[in-house]
Amino acid sequence: MGNRILTHKISLEALDAQWQRDLKRKLKLKEASFVILQKSLDARKKNQIHWQMQILVHSPEITTEEWKQESRQLLEDRLENFRSAGGAKQEKVLVVGSGPAGLFPALALNRAGYQVTWIERGQPVEERRDSIARFEQTGRFEALGNYATGEGGAGTFSDGKLTSRSKGISREKEFIINRYLKAGAPQEIAWLNHPHLGSDNLFSMTQNLRRELQEAGVDIRFRTTLEDMIIKQGKVQSCIINGQEETYGRVVLAPGHSHYPTYRMLLNRGILFRPKVFALGFRAEHPQSLINLAQWGRESLPGVKAAEYRLTDKSQGTHRVYSFCMCPGGQVVPAAPSEDVNIVNGMSLYRRDGRFANAAVVCSFHPSEYLGPDPDAGAVLSWLEGLERHFKTLTGDFRAPACSIKAFLAQTGSPLPRETSYPLGLKETDLWNQLPAPIIRAIRDGLYSFSSMLRGYEEGILLGLESKSSAPLQLVRGPSGAAEGVENLFITGEGSGWAGGIISSGADGLRNTASLWE
Ligand SMILES: Cc1cc2nc3c(=O)[nH]c(=O)nc-3n(C[C@H](O)[C@H](O)[C@H](O)COP(=O)(O)OP(=O)(O)OC[C@H]3O[C@@H](n4cnc5c(N)ncnc54)[C@H](O)[C@@H]3O)c2cc1C
């Protein structure tokens, strides 16, 4: 039995049995089985849109042994290595935050034999789903169950895109994909070029992952907040959790970047963060049919859910403008982590069959441009929070301040379309006056440029504020990966400022704690 890897072009209509038969004929094989290693839609020529696949062919008639470096089999071997890291340990580890940057270290540390306690300030995912549904019906915010808070972390009610721009994380990424597959993710995430899970799959997968950890003996506590830490002689001596003092040998803290009280507690305890480049802007919404037409030249394609886009305005200098976190067939959601701010984000279901497409359009910059050279981390946080609060005052409730892209470009009113996916209503607002002028200028140029790249882009609307595409602060890490000067505190994921997105945050959680379990 031998193997061969090849790339193959497949028509959109082709059924599996068809392309497999064609491939056997082409390779002159009587017997063969196939594993898809990668699949991506090639829509560069609108009249020849097709799937491009990389396929591993097994056959007794093949004499070569070609394996892809990162094949599933090799990954399983690696997982076994993770597991054998060495029997039960007495040491207690606290993992804070149930997003990917807390989940994956909790799994790895549990496998390595540590006694893991895993806490999350929000609700379990079933209650969280109900809280979000109530919020979207009534506009009444629920602090422990919202788009930023609760089991699964920020990305649970999301599009669940599993793409990442982080480099050098292939091993961690494989681990994460494999864990998601075991938790019930669709098989295609193993090979699709742009895989995504959708909120509906994430909901059941989050429950399955919790059960797995519970059965493995992890102590899981919801509505449980790390309120403070007592740090002495370069170590966390104890943690204040829901008013009680508890002691752990190590603390893995994966708080995300939305919960300012956690950031402030860390800054008060002397943990070193430095301001970093981050991005602000809006969320653009369009009819999905308009995006399909622009990308494919027609409103639908057989076997393909909805067209995606990723746009960058390369003409900008220091202020780079780009689209981010596109949700085809999705919904713009009220993603505030607290009652006093107005923030939007995007999500979609696995089917991606909603009538709208949305994506952030953001401009990156360094906070020193607005706060003077070398600004203090706390000042950056207050500045950002001030803007998020300002967007709440624009409507007084959780309606989203919004305007049409045409109005934004012309800087004068033009009526909003009546239809939107945003559940709590829009309030027509002069968004071009609501962020610092250089950011607005750059976004305006970016919108012109996007309109020339994607036909009809200027027909969309903008909703504000989009402030969570990345963290404004970055943790100063020591050589072991622990927070500088605190040898047993590992701050991971988006809140550390070293990662962003589901895969990259999960990978950062694994890498940053690897010295404990590998
Ligand atoms: C609506 C939405 C859609 C998104 N879509 C995508 C997408 O499609 N693809 C993608 O890659 N990324 C997406 N993201 C971003 C992605 O979710 C985040 O990058 C990722 O979840 C970060 O993981 P994390 O574990 O670092 O933090 P988080 O997921 O933010 O988790 C942090 C958790 O810690 C808890 N916490 C904070 N402080 C404390 C404390 N003191 N005590 C106890 N618990 C605490 C919080 O309640 C939270 O649940 C989306 C985000 C949102 C909000």
Q: What is the CATH first-level class name of the largest domain?
A: Alpha Beta
CATH fold-level name of the largest domain: FAD/NAD(P)-binding domain
Report the uncertain regions.
Answer: 68-76
Our estimate of the beta-strand percent is: 15-25%
Q: In what order do the strands lie side by side in the largest sheet? A: 13-14-17-12-20-18-19
- Report the biggest beta sheet as strand number plus sense, adding barrel if it closes: 7 strands, mixed
Give average pLDDT, whole number: 91
Q: Which compounds are bound in this model?
A: flavin-adenine dinucleotide
Number of helices: 14
Identify the overall geometry. globular
CATH superfamily of the largest domain: FAD/NAD(P)-binding domain
Helix proportion range: 25-40%
Alpha-beta content class = alpha+beta
Query: What is the β-strand count?
Result: 22
From the N-terminal CA to the C-terminal CA, the straight-line distance is 34 Å
Structure description:
- The protein has 518 residues and is of the alpha+beta class.
- It folds into 3 domains: 67 residues, Defensin A-like (2-Layer Sandwich), CATH 3.30.30; 231 residues, 3-Layer(bba) Sandwich (FAD/NAD(P)-binding domain); 189 residues, no CATH class.
- Helices cover 31% and strands 24% of the residues.
- It is built from 14 helices and 22 strands.
- Strands 13-14-17-12-20-18-19 form a 7-stranded mixed beta sheet. A 5-stranded parallel beta sheet has the order 6-5-4-10-22, covered by helices on one side.
- β8 and β9 form a beta hairpin.
- The longest helix has 19 residues.
- The protein is globular, with a radius of gyration of 24 Å.
- The protein starts with a strand and ends with a helix.
- About 2% of the residues have low confidence.
- The structure holds flavin-adenine dinucleotide (FAD).
- The site of flavin-adenine dinucleotide (FAD) has 42 residues, from α3, β16 and α13.
